[in-house]
Amino acid sequence: MARFLQLTDLHVVTRGALASGVLDTRALLRAAIDRLVARLDALGPLDAVLLTGDISDDGSPDSYAFARAELDRLQLPLLAIPGNHDAREPMRAAFADTPGMPGSGLVDWTVDLAGTRVIGLDTLVEGQGGGRLRAESLALLADALDWPGPVVVALHHPPLHTGIKFMDAIGLENTPALETVLGSAQADVTVIAGHVHGVYHGRIGQHAVATAPAICSAFALDRRDSATVGFLTGPTGCAVIDTAPGGVWSALPLDPAEGPYPF
Ligand SMILES: [Fe+2]
């Protein structure tokens, strides 16, 4: 069975820029990769890195080149889908040689690794924050679910409502269509996503849904209509996914911390 790192919402900007005028996301990604590289031995064997979108904040070729160079330091296969901040063609160009990356069209793919089938689905609708699954993506999913082992479905926009109004307003537009396709699956399916810059666990039908913390920032869980539309600088992190029987989904914080202290 397979073990993956999930990295999401890197929001890398072009050289010299700051995301939302505040965050140096290039430095944040470099620091996150530094911490991950230092922890790879402790984490044990990994089969791939799943990138669940918003790799870039501005869609610039320079942002993708920087992200790719940093991610390559992990020395693991990279499997990437776009988020709402991404630009499909520059992203495709930077990740053209990664497993499953199609040469044109939507960035949907199926990659089998260590007995686990990973299905990446493209929810990007360029020019808007919310996401949508097209009929062709849902058809690919329906075919790919015929698999005897564990299945991980990766998409940027989670089929969940966090209660954060400004994020729910730009969520996945057609969750019922996804639920219908997944409802026919016999496979053991886990749906993973990003976009909400925090850890949320829920269900779509009988299947588990988990979102990973973002590399660059976090959104406060503030369910009030008056919640400030904005982000916090942390907690940040990524996730570790183990598809073996009894395997767990773990959030891996990447904020600086001291220790371990003996007890
Ligand atoms: Fe997003």
How would you describe this protein?
The chain has 263 residues and is α/β, with parallel strands linked by helices. The chain has a single domain, classed as 4-Layer Sandwich (Purple Acid Phosphatase, chain A, domain 2). Helices cover 23% and strands 21% of the residues. The chain is built from 6 helices and 11 strands. The strands form 2 sheets. A 6-stranded mixed beta sheet has the order 4-5-6-7-9-8. Strands 3-2-1-10-11 form a 5-stranded mixed beta sheet, with no helix packed on it. Helix 2 runs parallel beside helix 3 and helix 4 packs parallel to helix 6. The longest helix is centred in the first third of the chain and has 19 residues. The chain is globular and about 45 Å long. The protein starts with a strand and ends in a 10-residue tail after the last strand. 43% of the residues are buried. The mean pLDDT is 97. The site of fe (ii) ion has 6 residues, from loops.
Which H/E pattern describes the elements? EHEHEHEEHEHHEEEEE
The end-to-end distance, rounded to whole angstroms, is 34 Å
Ligand kinds: fe (ii) ion
Number of self-contained structural domains: 1
Number of helices: 6
Instruction: Give the overall shape, derived from the CA principal axes.
Output: globular
Taken as a percent bin, the fraction of beta residues is 15-25%
Largest sheet: 6 strands, mixed
CATH class: Alpha Beta
Number of strands: 11
Work out the helicity level: 10-25%
